[in-house]
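Field reference: sequence -> structure
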Amino acid sequence: MGKPGDAPAPSRQKPAPTGTDSLQFLEKHKHIQARGLIASTALGLSDGLITNLAFLTGFAGAVSNVDLIRFAGIASMLAGSVSMLFGGILSARSEYDLFKADSNREAYEIEHEPDEERWELKNIYMQKGLSAEEAASVVDKVTSDKRTWLEDMLTNELHLHRSNLENPVKVGVAIGLSFLLGAAVPLIPYFIFGARSTSVVTSVGLSLAFLFAAGYWKGLVVKRRAWKSGLETLGIGATASGILYLLGTLFVFV
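Structure field:
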C-alpha cells in the first residue's frame, strides 16, 4: 500500500487500440456481408440438389430407359432454375414494395400525427431501460430531423431497415444459378454410366456428399456447428430421395 499523500498509482487499463492495432481489432468483429445473397445461394443450391435428386431417383425407380431419365432430369433442372430465378426476383421485389409501403405509412403518421408518434417512440426507449426524462431527451433529438425520425421509427417499431433489402435481380440470379448448379450434381452420373442401377447409386452417393458439404459450408457461415448443419442437410436429401424411389418402384410404368 502507498503512504498517505502519495500520488495515485497510474491506471493499468490498456489504452484503446490505435492505428494498425485498431484495424486488427475491428477485423475481429466484422459482420456477415451480403446475408441475403448468401441465404439465396444456400437455398438455391440445396433446393436444386434435393429436388432433382428426389425427382431422378423416383423417376429411375419407375423408368428403365436411361435416355428418358436424362431428358427428364435436364427438363427438371432447367424448369426449376427458371422458376427459382423469377421467384427470387418477385420475392425480393415484394420485400422492397412492403418496405416502401411501411415507410410511406410511417412518414404520413409523422406528418399528420406527430404527437402520437413521439409518444410511441418515447415508450419504445423506456421499454429498453431509459427513464422518462432520458427517453424524452432522446426523442427530442431524434425527431428534430424527419428523415432520422422516420428511420428510427422503422427500425425500432417495425424492425425494418433499408440496408436489409437486397437487389431483386441479384437475388434472382443468385438463387437461379445456384439451383442450376445443385440440380446438375445428381444428373451427372446418368451421363457417365449406361446402367440405370449404377447411375442411381452413384447419383445418390455424389449428391449426398455435396449436400453434406453444402450444409457444412452454411454452418461455417452462420457460426453453427458445421458438421451438424451438414448432417441435417444430408438427412433431408436422403429422406426425400428414399421416399420418392420407393414410390417410383410402386408405380413402374415403363
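Note: The first helix runs from residue 19 to 27.
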